[in-house]
Amino acid sequence: MRYILILLLLLQFALLSPSLVSGQRLSRPTTVPQDTATVGQDSVRLSAPKGDIETTIKYSARDSILFEVGSKVVNLYGDAKINYGTMSLEAAYIQIDYETNTLTATTLPDSTGKEIGTPVFTQGSETYAANRIAYNYKTRKGRISEVVTQQGEGYVHAAVVKKNQDNEFFGLRAQYTTCNLEHPHFYIGTSKMKGIPNDKVMTGPFNLVIGDIPTPLGFLFGLFPTPRQNNRASGVIVPSFGETRAQGFYLSNGGYYFAWNDYIGTRLTGDVYSLGGYKVNMDNTYRKRYAYSGSLGFSYQYFKNDEADVERSRSTTDNLLAALPPTQRTIWINWSHTPIPKPGQGRFSASVNAGSSGHQRLNYNSPSQYLSPTFNSNISYQKNIENTPFSYTAKLSQSQTTSGVYNFILPDLNFSMTPTSFFEIFTDNLPTGRWYEQFTVGYNLNAQNRVSNLTRPAGDNFQGIPVIGARGDIDTIQLDNFSRLWENGQRSATHNLQVNLGSYKLLRYFNFSPTVSYREAWFDERYTFRFDPDSQKIAVDTTNFGRIYEYNAGASLSTTIYGTAYIKGKRVEAIRHLIRPSISYNYRPDFGRESFGFYQRVQTTSFPIGDQDPFRLLPRFANVPGPGLQNQVSFNIQNNLEMKVRSKGDSAKTEFEKIRLIDNLSLTSAYNFAADSLKLSPINMSMNTNLFKIFNVNFTSTFEPYKRDSLGRQIDEYVFDFSKLKLANLTNANFSVGASFNPEARRTQTRTPSNLPALQPDMDPLLPQYVDFKIPWTLSFDYTIGYFKNFRPGTADNITQSLGVDGSLNLTDKWKITYFASYDFTSNNIANARLQIYRDLHCWEMSIGWIPYGFAQGYNITINAKSSLLQDLRLTRNRSARNNF
């Protein structure tokens, strides 16, 4: 009967055309009516009539549903739920008033008097939790009391919130915070607030409250972007402040970020200094999904250092700052473009770092950047031609040094053919396994145009010999000196042909592989030298074209030898020794002979000293084969040693595992039959292994087979003396051992973007990139010792030793310490050290970084909000080589 009554009431509601009555308030029920007939959960679906209800209202309740037919009201008790289009409402008690088109939700007291069932209102991506919610589903307006809602990364607490038909909300006595606690650690308090979902939150006058203590920090208005998740928004970048001795007080890295769309963003920032300098940076990032991503940056700086000479006269402590150059203007361009590879398509990539030679030394972020001698740039396009062995690359390259030397390759063209069988090239038949079907040929063509600001073919001298009419180098790269740059250029085309004659079995156990190679290069310059006895210099004449070539032939013979010693011990079953010896032969003519025309024997002086030869062999091209006949045999022996042991556990099982004792022990050398003396090359030995799956051991050394005279010069007499068990002289050796404990934690560590603010562009070495509190501890060390023999009489040999330690330790769930130190035993001092302490403060975090020694000496203390939205809400104290604040 109860369900028949419900259906009749629903039919009555469907025939009614309710009128709009605005502003009615619903009195909150004081008790929960008991329905003894209710079992389980009641649910009702009300179909949409032709009236103010636009779609179906679905509602349900765990306890009971009570209809008040006369007043057109439905009461839902116990886990009440309503779904109306994109809107949903959940609460302990909900009332539907069809007379006023309103939904009202409140909490209810349980048997102990505690309020339960906090109303939760959701519309689209917006969610509100409050003690009382009233919503008009016709006008789409609502009033929410004691509300908490999330807007982007932030949370809004308000005494009263009104919501309009545009989904905007207006808060009274509101708080804005990024702390997700019911009672937040900090908030921005304001009397009035307006929020536009997925856009921004705006406030009137506000002040910052920390730990319920109001602070004087605030402003006349507030604007907080709340974009959709993973969306970017434009906004102001708040600068950091500090002081440098050379340029005074500064505001750094302040500006504006332009989020043009989901794919392109521009960061425009600048620095300004109290002593007159400034810097402007423009950084652009772009990305096209499944296609490419990249960044393009430009920096212009006016560096003013009027006190440079005064600083140079101060103590050693100030020498670092005194070494900064005087007033100058610099620029720097960086561009990085990375494509996403796709089958059958070309690949365009770019990595550009170019600008004024002194810019990076003025704007370093690490010692390696400051001390880097060169900066390289490349722009390339590469494509493999489908269904063929051919590929090509077009590239533009540039390199520059801190001393002001610029080299360009414009362009660098490369065409290649992967090794292909002669049989496949000249016939259409299927391979039959004959020996000559293994013959392969590979080809490569490389064409370049090299341009430099260094005068060519010679500046003041050519290979140390003074030159007549030498011109100075080009100091600056400008359009006015383009013709001189072109004259300095070198155009060349190089052909490389590699012929592999297959691999064959000899005497069942040996692999025999012959090879032949040929290289030919064309140049637009060929030098001819002439000695002038009056000036004691040489004149260099240049012709328009020249050609060089070189060829060589060789073969290799290799095999593998296995040796096993069966121990049959308690755990050790056997030890296996694997030996891979190989021998190779290579022949190449002496391309230094004048008959080839690649070198010219030139008189360089009329007044030789002692038995000095006044004639020198000078190359006539930019890149020529080395002189000297090569008739050489090379040797190589590789050794591997491993042990087979029973696995730990049940002795009844016969499972075994292999333990590596030596991964690779290698000996290499060569003997040149064509050399006049010292035919045997130095003997190189190397070894590496992993002990107990923890310690990585590496060893390299070089031995000389020849004796030396009293002046330290090699003589053609072997050191080998079997009676004294002396084979060769050790000239240098290097031994290193390292270990990383808790390696599983290191492998599973996830790198995510830092929440900490960047005080300088790119990175600050005193700030962490990411802190993972899930890893309790890590520890790694690396010990290295090196030996270098000094052959000068009366000088001692060099021995270097260093020890590096790196690790982290969680003192508690919220405290973490990371450390790094390197000790130099040779100089008995700490070469490098870094200590960082982190504290997780829930919605805040604290970091302390300290570098006590070295180039980047300094410290940093930062307390900041975690949210990237409030990343400028921080307190910082730092001091470094550039910052004295």
Automatic annotation (TrEMBL):
Q: What is this protein called?
A: LPS assembly protein LptD
UniProt-listed InterPro entries: LptD, LptD_2
Q: Which Pfam families match?
A: LptD_2
Domain LPS-assembly protein LptD central, which positions?
A: 201-706
| Protein species of origin | Pontibacter locisalis
